[in-house]
């Protein structure tokens, strides 16, 4: 079992729709969770962080965390073609000693 | 100016050559990391350093070495490059509890 799992996609959504990206992790002791956006050939860009169960909203982005289910998700409302990218889930554990990335989900927003 | 810079941005070299990739940061972070990214494999940690005197191997350190010259500088060396080290290399920085901030990357091709 991979430590951090994401569906590779591509996930295709029409412009204006809600995109839902999911991530599961295996280490129950994980403390912090992050979402990155990566455009092709570019470096990952930190877009959301979440540390406690529940939802965290920032503009069109909402991160959701459920530690009991070991599940973290990212919702993108009013999806735009510029949101087309690969989204990486990152999990910190072991007192921030260990960072594990998922392999990413490719999102395509269709105009 | 960018907070995390990497040089060179692109490099083509031959098998057996020694290569050094350099990373500098102005974020004032103590923690620095080197990752490589390959299609389908995601980001894999090569080395990380939590301060100038603390350097640790990541999951794929064989064939690589690092030097932390100062809080702001962290270099990655390939002592004798081989073709399967062809990849996109990223330097990143962080503080405890925060996400990683990535540099722009170095595209390395080993012929």
Short summary:
Chain A is mostly beta strands. In chain A, 0% of the residues lie in helices and 56% in strands.
**Main β-sheet of chain A: number of strands, strand sense, barrel status?**
6 strands, mixed
Main beta sheet of chain B: strand number and arrangement?
A: 7 strands, mixed
Amount of helix of chain A: under 10%
Number of strands of chain B: 11
Could you describe the 3D structure shown?
The complex is a heterodimer of chains A (111) and B (111). With 111 residues, chain A is mostly beta strands. In chain A, strands 2, 4, 5, 9, 10 and 11 form a six-stranded mixed sheet that branches. In chain A, strand 6 and strand 7 form a beta hairpin. Chain A is globular. The mean pLDDT of chain A is 93. With 111 residues, chain B is mainly β. Chain B has no helices and eleven strands. In chain B, strands 2, 4, 5, 6, 9, 10 and 11 form a seven-stranded mixed sheet that branches. A four-stranded antiparallel sheet of chain B has the order 1-3-8-7, with no helix packed on it. Chain B is globular, with a radius of gyration of 13 Å. The termini of chain B are far apart. The mean pLDDT of chain B is 94. At the A-B interface, strand 4, strand 5 and strand 9 of A face strand 5 and strand 10 of B.
